[in-house]
């Protein structure tokens, strides 16, 4: 699979990003021990992306006829931005081919808000309810009960499974997960830098409220700054010499190329990229995914 992306790089034919995260407000109301966006640890200012920047992103993606995943969240709780309903509505109108997704901790959600955001044009909603007592919060319990009566979010039953447009999970508030490129409050990176291939620079773009663009959602502070959408177009940034130089290093496993990458323990690829190259079924089990990962360049 590396050879395919090396060829893209050599020919200057980088595909459009598979995933674009746009953080419209840099605020989360969670207390997750593993996340630098937690109320207990977030050092960022509470910033809103100006309306004109949001519209610029949408217009430029419309010109590109963007057909992939667009997520109006990153290291934040998207429903804390009260504009989110109108943002999704505008995006749906301008980007009929895009897959619009949100992830929420569920704290401020109600069934009425869920119906409203889907009516605006959302495709998929993930609710991760972070708990320290292994119990769903009261409002999420109510949402679960309400959704049992709403067929709209279930779809058709195929292969003994529904395709659900809403996925709700109970998560551990105090879990120890990845290093978040060295910014995780409860998992500092202490090992030698990983020398493993990372495809993220070929598939993801992340934009913060100030318009700064980085290559990966693991880069919490946008330390790998590839440009700013106030001064450049998304396409100019995505195809820039600086971005391609980084791609060239990460595709051969050089995670020493940036400070953030050197402290990152992310596996380096999404399940989407495996599905695109018809590898997902082969490596879908965790052990096989790890085997695939370990087979990448050392």
The count of β-strands is 10
Strand content: 5-15%
**How many helix segments?**
12
Largest sheet entry: 8 strands, mixed
Radius of gyration: 19 Å
Helicity level: 25-40%
Question: In what order do the strands lie side by side in the largest sheet?
Answer: 7-4-3-2-1-8-9-10
Fold and architecture overview:
The structure is a single chain. This protein has 298 residues and is an alpha/beta fold. The chain is built from 12 helices and 10 strands. The strands form 2 sheets. Strands 7-4-3-2-1-8-9-10 form an 8-stranded mixed sheet. It has a two-stranded antiparallel ribbon with strand order 5-6. Strand 3, helix 4 and strand 4 form a beta-alpha-beta unit. Helix 2 packs parallel to helix 3 (84-94) and helix 3 (84-94) runs parallel beside helix 4.
Quickly list its features:
single chain; alpha/beta; two-stranded antiparallel sheet; 8-stranded mixed beta sheet; 298 residues; 12 helices; globular; 14% strand
């Amino acid at each position: 699979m590396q050879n395919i992306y090396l060829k893209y790089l050599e020919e200057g034919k980088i595909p459009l990003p598979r995933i674009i995260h746009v953080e419209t407000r840099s605020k989360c109301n969670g207390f997750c021990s593993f996340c630098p966006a937690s109320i207990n640890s977030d050092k960022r200012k509470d910033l809103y992306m100006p309306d004109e920047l949001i519209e610029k992103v949408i217009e430029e993606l419309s010109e590109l006829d963007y057909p992939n995943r667009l997520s109006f969240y990153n290291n934040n709780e998207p429903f804390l931005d009260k504009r989110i309903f109108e943002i999704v509505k505008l995006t749906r109108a301008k980007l009929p081919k895009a897959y619009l997704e949100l992830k929420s901790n569920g704290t401020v959600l109600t069934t009425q808000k869920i119906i409203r955001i889907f009516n605006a044009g959302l495709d998929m909603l993930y609710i991760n309810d972070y708990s320290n007592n292994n119990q769903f919060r009261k409002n999420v319990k109510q949402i679960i009960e309400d959704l049992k009566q709403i067929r709209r979010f279930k779809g058709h039953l195929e292969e003994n499974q529904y395709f659900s447009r809403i996925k709700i999970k109970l998560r551990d508030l105090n879990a120890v997960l990845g290093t978040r490129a060295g910014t995780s409050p409860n998992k500092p990176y202490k090992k030698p830098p990983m020398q493993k291939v990372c495809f993220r620079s070929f598939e993801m773009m992340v934009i913060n409220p100030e318009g700064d663009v980085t290559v990966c959602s693991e880069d919490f502070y946008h330390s790998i700054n590839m440009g700013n959408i106030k001064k450049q177009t998304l396409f100019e940034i995505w195809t820039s010499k600086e971005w391609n130089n980084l791609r060239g290093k990460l595709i051969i496993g050089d995670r020493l190329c940036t400070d953030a990458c050197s402290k990152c323990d992310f596996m380096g690829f999404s399940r989407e990229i495996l599905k695109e190259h018809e590898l997902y079924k082969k490596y879908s089990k965790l052990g096989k995914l790890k085997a695939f990962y370990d087979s990448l360049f050392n």
